[in-house]
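Spend some time on this chain, tokens included, and walk me through the fold:

. . .
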Amino acid sequence: MLPWRRESVKPERIDLLVHNIGVLVTMGGKHGPRRGVEMSDVGLVTGGAVAIADGKIVAAGAEADVRAEIAGLPIEQSLDANGRLVTPGLVDPHTHLVHGGSRENELVLKLKGMSYLDILAQGGGILSTVRATRAATEDELYEKARKSLDIMMLYGATTVEAKSGYGLTLADELKQLRVTRRLDETHPIDLVSTFMGAHAVPAEYKGRSAEYVKLVIEEMLPEVKRQGLAEFCDVFCEHGVFSVDESRAILAAAKELGFGLKLHADEIEPLGGAQLAAEMGCISAEHLLAATDEGLKAMRDAGVIAVCLPATSFNLRAKSHARARTMIELGVPVALSTDYNPGSSPTESLQLVMTLACLNLNMSPEEVFTAMTINAAYAIGRGDQVGSLEPGKLADLVLFNAENLAYVPYHFGINHVDTVIKKGRVVVAGGRLLEK
């Protein structure tokens, strides 16, 4: 039998019963992010069902057990999964969702051998998007980001983190963050907001990074906090962007104000960003292509989650990728994300990331799904709400046109999602968005 979660009250009815599931991935049975061999334990159930009431999971497991658990309760609606693979809703823990413009012009520059930092130094990259974002209205930013969220949901995402960082003035950072809040209020996907005013040094502060850091600390952070527009603070700690000392100062100020901490760390050069993330108690460190064993061990000991972004290293044609296999063997919890942004990773597809994580990061399909559900949820402070199909958690589910986990990353380049359920409501059916 499936026990009711201790703090849950047995409902008077079942709003939705998803049954005849071929393979059910529950990710249940463990509190906290998964490490090492735990990442291969995805809680597989053959012949499963999920019962939902009031937008939350009532029971999930073998269909006979679920039906026994809800016996006597009226069932308002049933959904036949027709033998499909069913998983928790996918969680994308690192995106730059709200931005103006696009940067397809940089494709030719990359093909000619120009590096990411070279493009940035010439006023392109992030700074190009800053100009476009500053010029855009809130409504324009909202509509552009809404379309991307729709695509993310079609591909299975139900919870998404969104960073600012393309405004780089107080007014424009607040503009981005207000758009994120508006989207969270109006779109089925739940958004988690991160302030990233320290994404780059704006052109008007070139050569005066200390002054810009002061602006972030003394003006931006307090106002973002006062308006309640972000839960986390992130910094791009990298050569030519923000130094370890500058990053530490910004994170310390954010921590003092009550922000959760994240860090873009050791993406291109081994500056010690992973160690800084551990030192500051960050919930996650992102990228990590150049992180050393020392830095990864420090993250492990501090409980920092590694968010790997294989679509970014793929698109930048990096000589190497994040060492996810080493991270897992060392006991660092690993999450995966699109890093959706207009330059280095212009994709909304977590399914593409699955394939790249298998092929370039040497992760197994089970590890990939763990990294995109429960570990990704913990990387944005939502592990107690989403990421697994357990009683009391939000009823976020994806029904894939697949019979097993491996088929999804194996058969790449298409969308395998048939149905998405968000908080107990079907929002994608037959691979199409339903009316909101």
Observations:
- Residues 209-227 form the longest helix (19 residues).
- The CA atoms of residues 17 and 41 lie 25 Å apart.
